[in-house]
Write a structure and sequence with these properties.
The protein is an alpha+beta fold. Helices cover 24% and strands 34% of the residues. The longest helix has 21 residues. It starts with 13 loop residues before the first helix and ends in a 7-residue tail after the last strand. The N terminus is likely disordered. Keywords: Hydrolase, Metalloprotease, Protease.
Length: 459
């Protein structure tokens, strides 16, 4: 987005700040050693942000934030203690280390506790084009948010109200260091602009919106485009119908399809596995998806939303498949969960990096035609996915499709199934990727799901 910034350019002192956080981390590690810790790790971070909210042409909130966090973890053999602070005074830093040590001394041994293995620490600490501070002040941010909302309100006479528009811009700096001698710094920025509008009036009102997100201001859609898109989505939902309860093909639009991949990641994450709270316990090496389906983790994507050379424990990241040929190739583990499972860390302490879901179909129109008749889901409500059993039931809204064409909006229905069966029934993944997430996937077509609604004419 080409914002008209007139203020002086920001002085970029991020490297100096990272160096200061690195020096602070080493001081804390030295304090931990001097107190008898056999191992220690430190995380230090700084965050800066600007957030604007407007509604009906008026400014509602302007918020500028600056946060700092310091976390210290010490190990006395297999006993662990952690403490945190935001106070940089020497006495506070010393008290934080001593508190962590005191906790560790009175904690029972945990055979899985400890730093990740020293030989796994990252050596190549590259950056991946994730640092793009936005030179924008509050007045400019307000103007952009107001322009976004106004474009949406002007787009269609049926837009009668607004839930407002918001703009946020943030930058973060972090350093992780441990007693293996590893110190790694990371810096990143994130920016977003969104708008939510209300079409119709009275009992027939419908709300929808749109937002744009990126690491750089240039990645964002123009304010007017965001507003118009929000208006189109809200108006398209007017006069919704329900459906006759039954089994239908269900097409998850790209912006909600990524939640299906998120449920998979939750079920193959170490914490759920070693607690036995996953329907995918002991599933590594088994076929969960059709033979063409694949998911690749790609930590080194330039300008990727979640790229990084190391994970939250300093372990070197690597590109590798999670699912290949429909088979679950590995779990998602940090060192602690890996030890609990008798496995090796997958460099996922802190979560997954960029995920690339392989497409086997064309764009949105192509995959809609491929479905032919069924339900297009554009919104999901509730948290009805049970990671322990795989049972899935969520409120949904979207559009009924006949002959590959949208017919009318649908609201007040529930889509249900079991994730294991849903994964097997994925017929297609489109190329219509939603770029606003580190999970890169297009629309996902599931061949059959239960759709619970009401009997209505025209269903």
């Amino acid at each position: 987005m080409n914002a008209t910034a007139t203020s002086p350019a920001l002085h970029d002192d991020s490297h100096e700040r990272l160096q200061a956080l690195g020096d602070l981390s080493q001081r804390l590690l030295d304090l931990a050693r001097s107190r008898g810790a056999s191992e220690a790790e430190v995380s230090c971070s700084e965050e800066f942000g600007l957030s604007i909210n407007v509604r009906m042409g008026e400014v509602e909130t302007v918020e500028s934030t600056r946060d700092r966090g310091i976390a210290v973890t010490v190990y006395f053999d297999k006993r662990k203690g952690s403490a945190s602070t935001a106070d940089l005074r020497e006495e506070s830093l010393l008290a934080t280390v001593e508190q962590a040590c005191a906790i560790a001394r009175f904690t029972e041994d945990d055979p899985a506790a400890g730093l990740a293995d020293a030989g796994l620490m990252a050596r190549d600490l590259r950056e991946f084009d994730g640092w793009h501070p936005w030179d924008i002040d509050a007045d400019q941010a307000i103007d952009l948010a107001l322009a976004c909302e106004q474009a949406g309100r002007d787009a269609d006479a049926r837009i009668e109200n607004s839930d407002g528009a918001s703009l946020s811009s943030g930058r973060s700096l972090s350093v992780y260091a441990n007693s293996h001698g590893f110190t790694g710094g990371d810096r990143g920025t994130h920016h977003s602009l969104g708008c939510a509008l209300i079409a119709g009036r009275g009992d027939s009102m419908q709300r929808d919106g749109w937002y744009t997100y990126g690491l750089a201001a240039a990645d964002l859609e123009l304010p007017a485009a965001v507003g118009r898109h929000a208006a189109e989505r809200a108006v398209s939902r007017l006069s919704p119908r329900q459906l006759r309860t039954g089994e239908y093909p269900v097409l998850f639009a790209a912006e909600v399809a990524r939640s299906l991949i998120g449920h998979l990641i939750g079920a193959i994450s170490g914490g759920a596995l070693y607690r036995g709270a996953s329907f995918l316990v002991d599933s590594m090496g088994t076929r969960l998806f059709p033979s063409w389906f694949s998911i690749e983790e790609k930590p080194f994507v330039p300008h990727g939303l979640r790229s990084g050379a190391f994970d939250g424990e300093g372990v070197a990241t690597r590109q590798s498949p999670i699912v290949a040929g429909g088979v679950l190739e590995r779990y998602v583990l940090g060192s602690y969960s890996a030890r609990k499972l008798g496995l090796r860390t997958t460099a996922n302490a802190g979560g997954v990096h960029n995920l690339d879901v392989l497409a086997n179909a064309g764009g949105f129109d192509d995959i809609l035609a491929r479905m032919g008749r069924g339900l297009l889901v554009t919104e999901l409500m509730g948290h009805g996915a049970n990671t322990t059993t795989g049972d899935y039931s969520r409120g949904a809204a979207g559009f009924w499709v006949e002959d590959g064409k949208l017919q009318y909006p649908v609201d007040g229905v529930t889509v249900a199934g079991n994730l294991r069966e849903m994964f097997q029934r994925i017929d297609a993944v489109g190329t219509d990727i939603d770029p606003r997430s580190h999970i890169s996937t297009g629309s996902i077509l599931v061949s059959r799901m239960t759709v619970a609604g009401e009997v209505t004419d025209g269903s």
